[in-house]
Amino acid sequence: MSDRTPLMAGNWKMNLNHLEAIAHVQKLAFALADKDHEAVEVAVLPPFVDLRSVQTLVEGDKLKIKYGAQDISAHDSGAYTGEISGPMLAKLKCAYAVVGHSERRQYHNESDELCNAKVKAAFRNDLTPILCVGEGLDVRKAGNQVAHTLAQVDGGLKDVPAEQAETIVIAYEPVWAIGTGEVATPEDAQEVCGAIRGRLAELYGQEVADKVRIQYGGSVKSGNVAAIMAQPDVDGALIGGASLDADEFVKIVRFRDQ
Ligand SMILES: O=C[C@H](O)COP(=O)(O)O
């Protein structure tokens, strides 16, 4: 039994304006309040424009909900139109910054090299990166999911020291399971999450590897979360669509009750 605290993080993607965000977080807070969820860390990852509203609510009502951004610039300031920097996110007291989500890799051509720079930008600004990795359908069909995903882990962590690496969150998200309703089997999730922990042990030693939280993401719902969370190397979930429904998200947070 690991002593890693599970992290359930809701990635809202490009959904919910700031008014909807306020209503959603209030609903979440209300639903979470009737029972302690100390043993599970809960986070939301809203669009950038919602972050200030979410911060105000979380701080004002002392909610036990963390929040973070869906992306971060590799640069801390300067002429980078449209980018949002680590210092800006830190000022909003974000806890997390997602790096290398497959939708950014796919639609914005984000490379492992850029992801590595973003991981370093997050650490430089005291934000915890959630580094997303995972294979597409063609890679899965060819049986190369482990090698493909470990190469992304290597690339994202290049020159990241052990004292930072031990605090990172890695999200294994097989691209073919994202938003498709095609959930990977618990064994599929464990195969790759276990291999990721193995690679972390090779890179940094077992003690560091044992501290890193590895999430699974891809069509996680209340009905499948318990089986996925029962896997020894799965320490939480990165939830897309189901996180937009507060009641469903809370059921996922309470996976032990499912
Ligand atoms: O970041 C979340 C993942 O892309 C999973 O999304 P999904 O739960 O809608 O499949």
TrEMBL record:
GO terms for molecular function: triose-phosphate isomerase activity. Substrate binds at N11, W12, K13, G179, S219, G240, G241. It is found in: Cytoplasm. InterPro entries: Aldolase_TIM (IPR013785), TIM_sf (IPR035990), TrioseP_Isoase_bac/euk (IPR022896), Triosephosphate_isomerase (IPR000652), Triosephosphate_isomerase_AS (IPR020861). It comes from Streptomyces luomodiensis. Homodimer. The active site is at H101, E173. PROSITE patterns: TIM_1, TIM_2. Pathway: Carbohydrate biosynthesis; gluconeogenesis; Carbohydrate degradation; glycolysis; D-glyceraldehyde 3-phosphate from glycerone phosphate: step 1/1. Belongs to the triosephosphate isomerase family. NCBIfam families: tim (TIGR00419). It catalyses: D-glyceraldehyde 3-phosphate = dihydroxyacetone phosphate. SUPFAM superfamilies: Triosephosphate isomerase (TIM). It is an enzyme of class 5 (isomerase). The lineage of its organism: Bacteria, Bacillati, Actinomycetota, Actinomycetes, Kitasatosporales. Signal peptide: none annotated. Its main location: cytoplasm. This is Triosephosphate isomerase. Its EC number is 5.3.1.1. Involved in the gluconeogenesis. Catalyzes stereospecifically the conversion of dihydroxyacetone phosphate (DHAP) to D-glyceraldehyde-3-phosphate (G3P). Keywords: Cytoplasm, Gluconeogenesis, Glycolysis, Isomerase.
